[in-house]
Amino acid sequence: MKKKAGARASKAAKGGRSGRKAALPRAKAGPRRQAVSKVTGSDGARSAVRRLRRELAKARSEIERLTAIAETDYLLDIPNRRGFERELSRSIAFIKRYSARAALLVLDVDRLKPINDTFGHAAGDKVLQAIVQALVSQVRASDVVGRLGGDEFAILLWNLTETDARAKAAALEEAIDGLRFSFGGKAVQTGASVGIAILDTHSDTRAAIEQADSAMYVRKAQRRHEAG
């Protein structure tokens, strides 16, 4: 029995020397190491947020720039139809909320087509530029002048009664009637007819433009009758 016990002890001792070493337990991360890891992760997240905010601000700025280009008449540097309708929609929303007053004027330039046909579109462009300058000089900074297309313009006038709006329309017609041009040694004169729509809490963007546009055609016929 002693021999067998000794043999087993000797075999166990040999197996312990030749077998795998016992794995040592890993040291746990101390409080300081954990704190450093948390701070590093937090700094990285804040840096990523700041970078994303910068990229978002840059993207928004680019969108605003492209929108401004898409809504501006490149020749006259005023809102085109899309830009003016957007501004008019915002204004009508303001009118409905605060019961404000405003008037929409639609203006059509007389005799522009003969100028284009006779002297070329460069001459027509000069006429349009002069007309816009005349319009802008007659309105306030809070008012909006836009080009609906071709020889048709729209003006949004704030805080006017219908009487005031009609007086302003007459003044605009007079200002444009007074413009004089010379192309190819020939004196050229143009004119304008203005229609009015009063904006209130029941107004709609497209309906207001149609109303002012219809009034403009009535006024154009009246001016032709007066001239004839």
Your description of this structure?
The chain has 228 residues and is α+β, with helices and mostly antiparallel strands. It folds into two domains: 40-70; 81-227, 2-Layer Sandwich (Alpha-Beta Plaits). Helices cover 61% and strands 17% of the residues. A four-stranded antiparallel sheet has the order 2-3-1-6, sandwiched between helices. A two-stranded antiparallel sheet has the order 4-5. Helix 4 (112-119) packs antiparallel against helix 5 and helix 5 packs antiparallel against helix 6 (162-177). The longest helix has 40 residues, at 31-70. The relative contact order is 0.12. Residues 1-6 and 15-19 have low confidence and may be disordered.
Describe the SSE topology.
Elements: H1 2-18, H2 31-70, H3 81-98, E1 102-110, H4 112-119, H5 121-138, E2 144-149, E3 152-158, H6 162-177, E4 180-183, E5 186-189, E6 191-199, H7 205-227
Antiparallel strand pairs: 1-3, 1-6, 2-3, 4-5
Helix pairs in contact: 4-5, 5-6
List keywords for this structure.
228 residues, alpha+beta, Alpha-Beta Plaits, 2 domains, four-stranded antiparallel sheet, two-stranded antiparallel ribbon, 7 helices, disordered N terminus
